[in-house]
Structure formats: structure tokens, C-alpha cells
């Protein structure tokens, strides 16, 4: 049956009015009204503005000055426009640090922590409960111990003179931190951060229907086929979430500085360490702020790409 219309073919006012009232109710599900809803979210917006927006704007402003830690520029910094940004983007030292950071993120975060965390979660899925609890406790211990303590333990492990690793391998005199600085901080970061991936993937694997795995086993599917055809499609969202968080955390971590201080000869100088040396050690706060803003933009690009992939998956 067709809906009644007037001579011009428009729907009656009572019908369209009902639709408008329904749309209004739909957009205000909580029934708070615009004013009360604004008052409800105002504290959260104020905190976001205070701790996120304002520091970002202040950093952008500092990046356009010659602000220094000491001297006349510390008291009265001059506005230099985009000079700090253009100088940074054409600086070979920045390019080298960015390359090291990307290698560090890819090997220690995206591949190392994610793959090791998934492997641990997959193996622990069918392990004895007591053994599983003991292994989870040890892995979590590496995650919750303060970074300064963990760094001291690793320096003791890799020490040239009395290091534990040299004693175990019989390689007395080997200085791991100076001969293999990037490898050392990559392994160190994998060891520290694997616990998060393991916990997330343990939760994700628990959501896979056992009946589907059992059906796959009954038709003779191998472990790899079960992973590819049953497990991975179910946990794809968890994988993207884990990769996003691991990438951002690893990109911004400063802990490797406690092991190698970016050396020797800048061979392990990832971006957070490079910024620290420019801004604090070198006293060039304006340039350090410009590099920080560039780093923030890189983080935003990475997050946008991941979120876009997640949205497309849905």
C-alpha cells in the first residue's frame, strides 16, 4: 500500500515531523540534552586540552624559535619561522637517526615482540596450568620491573669484564654494547616488551571457537593450516591493535639510552635519544622542539594508517 501524499507529492507534515522527532531522539540516546551532555564531557575535554593540545601547540611554537637552554636566547628567544624544521629535514644526522629508529621499531617491535608474544601465547595455550602460570609470571616480571633496574641487569649481563654472557660463552673481553649496539638494544627491547603481546594474544586465542579448531584437526589440517584458515581470521583485529600499540611505544621509547647512550659513534642513536642530545645535552631547545613535532607527525601518520586498515576490516 502506497504512503499518502499531497498534491505536490510530499509526505504529510505529521509523517515528516514524526521522522524528525525520531531522528532527534536517536541522536540523543542518553536523553541528557545538548547543554548537559556538553557539561558531562567538559572535564575530559579540558584534560585533553591541557595535557595534549596545549603541549603540542607549545612545542610547535618553540620549534619556531631559537630558544636555548642557556645564554641570551634562553632569556629572550627570537622567532625564526620554519628554519628549525627545514634544517632538521635536511640534516643527515636526523636522517640517520630516523633510519635507525625504523629498523629498531621493525625488528624489535613489529617482528620481535609480536611474533615472540604470539608464539608464547600459542604454546602456553595447551601447557600445564602450573607451568603456564610460572612462565607468564616470569615474562610479566620483565615488563613490570622499572626500566632503570632492567637496564642495570642488562649492563651486568653484557659487561665486557665480568659479564654473565661472556662467562657463559667463554668470550672474555667481548664488549657487546659497543661492538653490537643496535643488536643489543633490539634484543633488550624484545625481552622487555614481549609480555604485552603475549597477554593480548592469549586473550585473542581464547576467543577462537574450539569447535572450529577441532573440525580442522578432524579433516587433517596441519598446524600451519589451522593458524592460517581458522585462527588468524578470528584474531586479525587483535593483531592490528597489538601492532599499532607496539609500533607507537617502540617508536617513542627512551630506555635504550640507559644501555648505550646512543653510541658508540651514534650507531644506536634512535630518535628519542637524538632529541635528548640535541635539546638537553646540546642546549638547543628550539631545534629539539622542532624534531619532537616532526616525530609527533610521524606517529600520527602511523596511527592513521593502522586505524584506516582496522576500519576497512570492519
From TrEMBL:
It comes from the Bacteria. The keyword ATP-binding does not apply. Keywords: Cell membrane, Membrane, Transmembrane, Transmembrane helix, Transport. It is a multi-pass membrane protein. The chain crosses the membrane at residues 40-61, 102-125, 137-157, 185-208, 239-259, 285-307. Residues 94-306 form the ABC transmembrane type-1 domain. It is found in: Cell membrane. It holds the Pfam family BPD_transp_1. Its main location: membrane. The keyword Phosphoprotein does not apply. InterPro entries: MetI-like (IPR000515), MetI-like_sf (IPR035906). SUPFAM superfamilies: MetI-like. Belongs to the binding-protein-dependent transport system permease family. This is Carbohydrate ABC transporter permease. It comes from Georgenia faecalis.
